[in-house]
């Protein structure tokens, strides 16, 4: 069992300039935790502090309840794989993997067994005599991983390990990393820019911006219940649609209107318990899949309605055709089956499933949550 606790950790490279602010993360034993966020938000800084390569300005880092905040990297039992592999160019693959064990003065036969084990696991056992320059990017990446695995540390840190690979290899390695984690069950903290990598690999995702964690949750939580507009826009491809709406009120209740340029207008009832006033401006968040071709068997569902929308443009991706609409002046992407044959300039019957509709405060960016309703008397 290995637990890693980041408690109120802060980092200032220079006085007065805060790079990381009060980071709190409780990483569970065996967990695959992913850090995502835009360039410069502090992901590598946090990883380097966990590894001991960068000093901690405030707060504590605990490994199995032991304070390692100021421990030397070699005393931490944590292995890091860098974006740039950092292989020793003059050593062959075998020695690159063996190096960390030689430094730790492992007996020769044990080192040999360990290198063979790791090389087999990563399917690089036929490459052991080659130098890094004689390997493809994906193979170098495996060697870098092998070097970390051979140490059998308590925690692995991966800082964008796949970002140098081409798209196809990246997807393959993503699957490999996932299998590896399932097989070994070790604790992993993994940085990526790629939100698909984040969604597919993580047990939990921490979304960072400007040195602050915006949300920590399972991929589903982050995708379906983002805390704010930043998280909502960062995760999901194509991105969530944001539509400006105004709260209206009739005897039937509160609703917002969605109008396109052809005059189509749908009314969306607001969730009960949402603390908003009539005439208040909100941002409605709808994932592209909330709009789809009409599927008659779904039309009876409470939150589902249909309308004919004017198509501005289409972007076929293969399995779906992304169909651009304009609603309340905002560009909106719908995810439509290619068979529906959307055509730019023509109207297309579409179905809107508003069961996943989210509402945000346009000023603070925070998601508005429905307050619990008092139980019916
Ligand atoms: N050694 C340093 N001295 C001063 N500032 C630094 C240093 N290292 C990083 N920074 C700054 O700290 C901030 C966070 O950098 P960091 O490398 O952690 O970002 P990141 O989230 O890993 O970005 P990327 O996704 O581009 O790798 C940046 O503004 C960066 O310029
Ligand atoms: Mg970085």
UniProtKB/TrEMBL annotation:
Organism: Atopomonas hussainii
Superkingdom of source: Bacteria
Keyword presence, Nucleotide-binding: yes
Gene Ontology annotations for the cellular component aspect, listed alphabetically: ATP-binding cassette (ABC) transporter complex, substrate-binding subunit-containing
Thylakoid as UniProt keyword: no
InterPro entries hit by this protein: AAA+_ATPase, ABC_transporter-like_ATP-bd, ABC_transporter-like_CS, ABC_transpr_MalK-like, ABC_transpr_MalK/UgpC-like, Mo/tungstate-bd_C_term_dom, NA-bd_OB-fold, OB_MalK-like
CDD domains: ABC_MalK_N
Entry-linked SMART domains: AAA
GO MF terms, alphabetically ordered: ABC-type transporter activity; ATP binding; ATP hydrolysis activity
Protein name: Multiple sugar transport system ATP-binding protein
Alphabetized UniProt keyword annotations: ATP-binding, Nucleotide-binding, Sugar transport, Transport
Gene Ontology biological-process annotations: carbohydrate transport
Record domain ABC transporter: where: 4-235
Pfam families from the UniProt entry: ABC_tran (PF00005), OB_MalK (PF17912)
